[in-house]
């Protein structure tokens, strides 16, 4: 079968090549992939570190062509959205059934392929904050794939949503259209007293965002796009009036179990137009180097989708 394989000798580090069909474990279904989306983390770190010839790819939408041998998961012919630690950038992938979400028949595969890492991460991160109805929630790195879904989901959950971006003048209108009540130039402008933060950036912004938490507030460290460490000044972790019981939670979607229900629910919301997939680049896999370069240079705000069908 055809797949995008790691080849660091070509532009973007990926090329189309032939690889063997995957052999599924008993708890895995085989899925014929029709669309896949790219994530900064897998592009940045996967292409740098994976062995030559590896097939990467976390996200993919497609159709089940072989049901799991253990009887779990959807039947042959079911449209699905899938997550795995690799294999999404290929014509066929093997996927554990608890990471497969059933998709409505009317759903558009490219839109659905944006869901697993971006929307799944945003949803599970919000769960770690708890009920957000009436709460003040800050989303840093709000123009990225996870950030845009986080803004929408927090608003859908009834939160007062504050979106942080490096260029509010450029991105403010779009973020407000997604549901942000406020758009600020950084965590320091969030106004304090926050009930929760979804931080996609890490480094100094995480430290600033933690300082904006109110009593009982939770910061979920979702992403670390700056590559910088976090250095808290003396006193930053002190308690006090309005600052007691604050917490930092680390998070990684690929360590979560039973994502099938989340993926199916998110697919329904995207298919029905409740959530926008925010696709800002789309092409076929022969154009993948263009998408990789846009992601690596931080020119791509939103999701990049490759059509395989």
Supply database-style keywords:
globular; 26% helix; Quinone Oxidoreductase, Chain A, domain 1; 6-stranded parallel beta sheet; 309 residues; Rossmann fold; 8 helices; alpha/beta; 7-stranded mixed beta sheet
SSE topology sketch:
Elements: E1 2-6, E2 14-18, E3 28-38, H1 40-49, E4 59-66, E5 79-83, E6 92-96, E7 100-102, H2 109-112, H3 115-129, E8 136-139, H4 145-156, E9 160-164, H5 168-178, E10 182-184, E11 194-199, H6 204-211, E12 213-221, E13 247-250, H7 260-271, E14 279-284, H8 288-296, E15 303-307
Parallel strand pairs: 8-9, 8-11, 9-10, 11-12, 12-13, 14-15
Antiparallel strand pairs: 1-2, 3-4, 3-6, 3-15, 4-5, 5-7
Helix pairs in contact: 3-4, 3-7
Report strand %. 25-35%
Tell me the name of the CATH class of the largest domain: Alpha Beta
CATH topology of the largest domain: Rossmann fold
Main β-sheet description: 7 strands, mixed
Q: Could you tell me the number of beta strands?
A: 15
Tell me the span between the first and last alpha carbons: 13 Å
Give the full name of the CATH homologous superfamily of the largest domain. NAD(P)-binding Rossmann-like Domain
Compute the number of helices: 8
The H-and-E topology, N to C, reads as EEEHEEEEHHEHEHEEHEEHEHE
Mean pLDDT: 94
Radius of gyration: 19 Å
| Morphology | globular
Q: In CATH terms, what is the architecture of the largest domain?
A: 3-Layer(aba) Sandwich
């Amino acid at each position: 079968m055809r797949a995008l394989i790691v080849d660091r000798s070509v532009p973007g580090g990926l090329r189309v090549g032939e690889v063997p069909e995957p052999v599924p474990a008993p708890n895995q279904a085989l899925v014929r992939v029709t669309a896949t989306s790219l994530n900064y983390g897998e592009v940045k770190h996967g292409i740098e570190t994976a062995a030559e010839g590896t097939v990467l790819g976390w996200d993919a939408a497609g159709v089940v062509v072989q049901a799991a041998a253990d009887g779990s998961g959807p039947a042959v012919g079911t449209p699905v959205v899938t997550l795995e630690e690799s294999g999404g950038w290929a014509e066929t992938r093997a996927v554990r059934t608890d990471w497969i979400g059933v998709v409505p028949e009317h759903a558009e595969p490219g839109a659905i392929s944006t869901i697993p890492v971006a929307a799944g991460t945003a949803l599970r991160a919000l769960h770690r904050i708890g009920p957000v109805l009436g709460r003040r929630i800050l989303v840093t790195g709000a123009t990225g794939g996870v950030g845009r879904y986080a803004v929408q989901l927090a608003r859908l959950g009834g939160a007062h949503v504050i979106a942080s971006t490096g260029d509010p003048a450029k991105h403010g209108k779009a973020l407000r259209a997604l549901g942000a009540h406020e758009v600020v130039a950084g965590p320091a402008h969030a106004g304090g007293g926050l009930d929760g933060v979804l931080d996609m950036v890490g480094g100094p912004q995480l430290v600033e965002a933690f300082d904006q938490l109110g009593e009982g507030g939770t910061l979920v460290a979702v992403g670390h796009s700056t590559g910088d460490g976090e250095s808290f000044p003396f006193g930053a972790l002190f308690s006090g009036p309005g600052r007691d019981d604050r917490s930092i939670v680390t998070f990684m979607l690929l360590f979560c179990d039973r994502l099938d229900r989340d993926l199916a629910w998110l697919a329904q919301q995207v298919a029905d137009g409740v959530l926008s997939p925010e696709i800002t680049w789309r092409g076929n896999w022969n154009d993948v180097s263009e998408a990789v370069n846009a992601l690596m240079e931080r020119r791509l705000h939103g999701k990049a989708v490759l059509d395989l069908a």
